[in-house]
Amino acid sequence: MLERGHTHATDRHFPVRSSPRWRADGIGPARKAHDDLTGALASPENHPLLLHMTTGDSWRGATGLEFARAMLKIGHPVAVFLNLDAIRLALRTGEQEKKASMPQVPREIIADLIRGGAIVLICQPCLSEFGFKLDDVVPGVQLGSSGYLENFVFADNMRTLTW
């Protein structure tokens, strides 16, 4: 027996065009979390992002950090965790290659993220492994101990993206 509103046994997991879960124009499923077809969230402040960075490559790192900056600008709370080789992105000194497609090098983006309200955490064991101290990184970067990091990983509605 088919469930009420379903026309075929294989469609039971999809909303029926007349259901409130179907868009008013009948083209597809309703999008509860989005304002419009651009995909913008209705309330980005309720959808935090934790960006887990693992690459120390300047260009790759900059692309991830630019993504974090874009999310911060539209209202998402943003935390960045610099882990493994990615700790090099936050070093105050040393060469960071700047390709033509990069408006800034990673350390500058990190400073802007912090000024904009993002939290930037760095792996303490990774700093030690590479022979660096917290004084060697951009001001405002915080040590990301496992206990402190837990508050971000398990925060309500947190989305984690590894770059």
Commentary on this structure:
The chain is of the alpha/beta class and about 160 residues long. Helix content is about 25%, strand content about 10%. It has four helices and five strands; from the N terminus they run E-H-E-H-E-H-E-H-E. It has helices at about 60-75, 105-115, 125-130, 145-155, and strands at about 50-55, 80, 120, 140-145, 160. Strands 4-3-2-1-5 form a five-stranded parallel beta sheet, with helices on both faces. Strand 3 (about 120), helix 3 and strand 4 form a beta-alpha-beta unit. Helix 1 packs parallel to helix 2 (about 105-115).
Provide the descriptors you would attach to this structure in a database record.
globular, 163 residues, disordered N terminus, 4 helices, 5-stranded parallel β-sheet, 25% helix, alpha/beta
* Radius of gyration, in angstroms, nearest whole number: 21 Å
Structural class: alpha/beta
Overall spatial form: globular
Distance between the termini: 47 Å
> What fraction strand?
5-15%
Helix and strand sequence: EHEHEHEHE
